Structure of Malonyl CoA-acyl carrier protein transacylase:
Amino acid sequence: MSRAFVFPGQGAQTIGMGRALAEAYPAAKAVFDEVDEALGEKLSALIWEGDIAALTLTQNAQPALMATSIAALRALEAEGLGIEAASFVAGHSLGEYSALCAAKSLRLSDTARLLRVRGQAMQEAVPVGVGAMAALLGLDFDTATEVAAEAAQGEVCQAANDNDPAQVVVSGHKAAVERAVEIAKARGAKRALMLPVSAPFHCALMQPAAHVMAEALAAVNIENPVVPVVVNVRAEAVSEANRIRDLLVAQVTGSVRWRESVLWMEQAGVTEFWEIGAGKALSGMIKRIAKGAETRAVGTPEDVLAAKG
């Protein structure tokens, strides 16, 4: 039996996430305290008692979700299930930073600050209303890529997230993405809908944010991970710090190859996927990709104790 720890991305945030972990495990509370100190603000108060609209802002959601994931991991460690219990780690978009922090490639405080910078840079890369994203349901990745190319018409429209066999997200200029929705419907998509996001993530329009992240990542220390990290833009495991830095920059404009990443881990012998942190979105995707694999969500003290079980 081989196990992978996987870490969720944006969209999983909820008010109150991680609070029960912090109350039950001092090591989990210490994560939120360290993130608050690194950012110079009480992000934990926003996470536990704030307004969902404020938490959903990209610059808040990204470090908040990472903090919740690492708090869940610290709770697991307190019960004797540390990172060495995993053969691989992986994360969806910002979750890749959580995975790198979990694998001791990035320090927690550095990860929090990087994600604050990343969130702000991604939000500021494109004026509000210029870009958009849409989910195409019922089309495979190759067909969705063809749809995006047809819809571009001189603008940017790219397959941004290859989430599972029947869910691909496209990203780019708003008009091009709207065209993609109509073309996808004509090509037989079960559903094609615009997403309520604040920016067109994981496409060429994010290039200004990639420049910002290249500068930010150059200023932090990155160690070789203690567990191989299956990275978004390559859909394969990486263990060298010098490659990780470049791949995190590439990730800003590159596709999140989640379906391929899960298949890679399955072919490498992974039979269990533990989703560490908020929500169960990745577990749902994984069930549609690796049908024989077991999934487990670990985001509450009850989940932690059940995992120890």
